[in-house]
C-alpha cells in the first residue's frame, strides 16, 4: 500500500539526479550488465540504457507499471534463476532497509554479491541511521515540490524496527495522504558485518553522491561500495 500510493507522485518527490547517476556510472563497466535493485520508476536504468549500457531493474511493487528490461521480484528472493553475472549492482533510495530483520539484510547482501562478477562492486545507499539514533531525530527534512509538501517522520523506541511515516499534502487541493511503512534500521556496523559475511574484498564508504567523506554522526546518507 505504501508504494502503491507513493507511485502516483514518486518522480516529482524523488526526481532523477545527475550527480547520483554520474556517481553510479563511475562504477559501471561498459561490457557487463548493470542491475538496479528496487528500481522504483526505473529512471536510472533507463538512463544507463540511453548511454549504451545493458541494464536491468528489479522492483517488488507492480504499482510502478514498468515496461522494458524490468523484473517484478522480491529482493529477498534473489538470486534470479538467470545465470547472468553483473558488472555493477546498486540499490539506492533507502531500499535495503525494507526488510523484516537484520538477518534478512545480511542474506540479501550475500545473495546479491553472488550475482556479481569478480572485481566488481555492489553499491548501497541508505539513510545514515547512526545519525538518526545518535541525535534522536524524529524525521528527515521536509520536501517541497511544485505540487506537494512532504513531511517525513520517524517513530521508534528501539534499534530493531521503526515506522517511517510520510504526510503528503497536495498544495492545490490541500488533500493530505498519510503513508507509513515498517523499516529495519541498518547501521554502519551492520553494513560492515554484511560485507564480511558475504566475503567482500573491501568496502568504500561515502557521505554523498559526489564522493564526499562519510561522517558517522553528521552525514545524511550512508553509501557503501562493496567490492567482490
UniProtKB/TrEMBL annotation:
<protein>
    <submittedName>
        <fullName>Class I SAM-dependent methyltransferase</fullName>
    </submittedName>
</protein>
<dbReference type="GO" id="GO:0032259">
    <property type="term" value="P:methylation"/>
</dbReference>
<keyword id="KW-0489">Methyltransferase</keyword>
<keyword id="KW-0808">Transferase</keyword>
<dbReference type="GO" id="GO:0008168">
    <property type="term" value="F:methyltransferase activity"/>
</dbReference>
<dbReference type="InterPro" id="IPR029063">
    <property type="entry name" value="SAM-dependent_MTases_sf"/>
</dbReference>
